[in-house]
């Protein structure tokens, strides 16, 4: 058996481990004698073309949307969720070594124990042709993690360390987390990646967050293996139009903007490209059961 075959077998073994591990951690971390709840959601986001306000589509136009769904189990000490999303990113310049259809499936959650808090996700992320041909390489495995310690048991302030692809390649950054609930609503700061406010009745939510991740890529001929890095700052204001009851879902709509959006990928002709897409408005629709 050739070395390439052994390499792919090793990748698949690691892939199965990363998928199963979060389930095991969640089962061990969930207390048995607490009240739990389950929820399910559907999500759709649409960005305006990044070269707007041109009236007609151009050869360099980049368009983007996102479809997502997920399930969450929550109790007083932890949450565990499964999330899938698909983003068609259509780049019409050059010869990208990928087809622009980005798929991501992740498992994870957060766990609180006295002064300590852990947030972790693991899964797979790659372009559709990689899953179609089942031709995987190491970059398909993905994840993020953050660990915090509170100042004391009554303090809203925690400090810690987090690692992810929000700023490009995987890197560790110090994190400062502060949360407060009062008559003005719920406030959450997780610097340097998130600022969030939610109104007292949970009708309105405003977020400013750093978003970014890595997807494994494979060209059509299955000869060029690479990775696509997508990163941006995003603001979003959402409003809960309808609270669900029985079989009817909760309906939430949102409007926001992406700033300083950048994408890095391999081009068949020019090699690595770090493309600035600029800014774009975004709208969202979410259903929760």
Strand order of the largest sheet: 1-2-3-4-5-6-7-8-9-10-11-12-13-14
> Overall mean pLDDT score?
87
Helix content bin: 10-25%
Shape: globular
Helix and strand composition category: mainly beta
Number of strands: 14
Order of helices and strands: HEEEEEHEEEEEEEEE
| Strand residue percentage | over 45%
C-alpha termini separation: 49 Å
Low-confidence stretches: 15-20, 22-33
Overall number of domains: 1
The major pleated sheet works out as:
14 strands, antiparallel, barrel
Tally of helical runs = 2
Give a verbal description of the structure.
The protein is 11% helix and 60% strand. The chain is mainly β and 289 residues long. A hairpin with a 6-residue loop joins β6 (141-150) and β7 (157-164). The protein contains 2 helices and 14 strands. The protein has one domain (3-288).
List the helices and strands and how they pair.
Elements lengths: L2 H27 L7 E11 L14 E13 L3 E14 L9 E13 L2 E12 H6 L7 E10 L6 E8 L6 E12 L2 E7 L2 E5 L5 E15 L6 E18 L7 E18 L3 E18 L1
Please give a quick description of this structure.
This protein has helices at residues 3-29, 128-133; strands at residues 37-47, 62-74, 78-91, 101-113, 116-127, 141-150, 157-164, 171-182, 185-191, 194-198, 204-218, 225-242, 250-267, 271-288.
